Amino acid sequence: MIANYIENANFEDTGFSYTLSLISGKHKMVILYCLMEYEPVRFNELQRYLKKISDKTLSQNLKELERDELIHREVFSQIPPRVEYSLTERGKSLMKVLDQLCVWGEENRK
Known about the structure:
By secondary structure, this protein is an alpha+beta fold. 62% of the residues lie in helices and 13% in strands.
């Protein structure tokens, strides 16, 4: 039964593949984790948390996470301008899955 499914399945059409596409990359999971722990978070705070990330890379990752509706970007019209990032409900639901990765890592660390 499973062998038939595997033979007929296209990996790109699986939920697993879709989830990986949302969190792929070096920084996305860390950004999500930071927002889970400290939200709301400003751009500079994320940069300090991630340490070695360029403005361009962080900005691109944030735009992709926002496009995928995992984070919310709120702009405050004040001087100087202020922008804060937080998890959406969709992002919070993904964090339940990522939290299980953390639990597994803690339980299986060598």
